[in-house]
Design a protein that fits this description.
CATH architecture: Alpha-Beta Barrel
Structural class: alpha/beta
Number of domains: 1
Strand content: 15-25%
Largest sheet: 8 strands, parallel, barrel
């Protein structure tokens, strides 16, 4: 059994591949093209807008703008106008008239109304289609989802951090609710690190960490940050391998529980 490559992205009206690709770790332009050729249509041009990744976006857009979902992230907290400037700068660098998603980065409480109003002006002007937000504060998601302001959420979810299963998923419907994107699927690489494993236990492969997230129907897609083609192919292989079976799931959760008991990086 394999994963269905393309699924409805919550209530956004879009369809998304279950593997999304991030710009931040070094994948080059030809790698972006390869990812899209294999169905990966969620392209996250985030806080590290690497020029080579941007070149890849330009190439795939020429082949069909409606085939990809372009995500621009902004971390601005101060003057709302600078948030708009940051998005417009990103659009200019890609030669685009609009982004499919503007992602307000790392808000552990709802953004101020002035920032939201500025974002909604971009939406009204057609420069963005959807408004998303990323957060590490799981309990903030249900009320923000209920507000109807945000079309999608980026949330921390992996085998070691499973709190979303209690704090978010029971309160947000995967069909009628907003789009849901998981980040840190490998827990900053710790789930793949032999030195972090329980005694005598082999580390996970990256594909297995991704399969854990994708085995949950509340997660529509995940963001991966491949550095090269080999890591891209490993990520894409998760789609063919499909959901974890009972034995695989038990092992992944055991390793996740072991890591969770250790001190988390960044204290979270």
């Amino acid at each position: 059994m394999t994963f269905q490559k393309i699924v409805p992205f919550g209530n956004t009206g879009l369809e998304v591949c279950r593997i999304g690709i991030s710009a931040g770790y070094g994948l080059d332009a030809s790698g972006v093209e390869e990812a899209v050729d294999h169905g990966a249509n969620y392209l996250f041009f985030g806080s590290m807008r690497r020029p080579s990744f941007g070149e890849g976006i330009k190439r795939v857009v020429k082949k069909g703008r409606d085939k990809v979902i372009i995500v621009l992230q902004t971390y601005w907290r101060g003057l709302p106008r600078l948030q708009t400037w940051d998005i417009e700068r990103g659009l200019c660098s890609l030669g685009l008239d609009y982004a499919d998603v503007m992602l307000m980065g790392w808000f552990n409480s709802p953004p101020g109304q002035r920032l939201i109003d500025e974002a909604l002006k971009l939406k009204e002007a057609g420069k963005i289609k959807l408004l998303g937000i990323s957060t590490h504060n799981r309990k903030s998601v249900p009320p923000m989802a209920k507000s109807g302001v945000f079309d999608l959420f980026h949330i921390r979810y992996n085998a070691a951090h499973r709190g979303a299963e209690q704090d978010i998923f029971p309160h947000v419907d995967p069909v009628s609710g907003p789009g849901m994107v998981a980040f840190t699927a490998t827990r900053w690489g710790q789930l793949l690190n032999p030195k972090k494993m329980p005694p005598g236990e082999a580390p996970l492969r990256a594909a297995d960490a991704y399969r854990f997230c994708l085995s949950n129907p509340h997660i529509h897609t995940i963001t991966t940050g491949p550095k090269n083609r080999a890591q891209l192919q490993e990520a894409l292989s998760a789609l063919e391998k499909g959901p974890l079976d009972h034995e695989e799931m038990a092992r992944v959760k055991m390793i996740g529980d072991y890591l969770y008991r250790k001190k988390s990086v960044f204290g979270i």
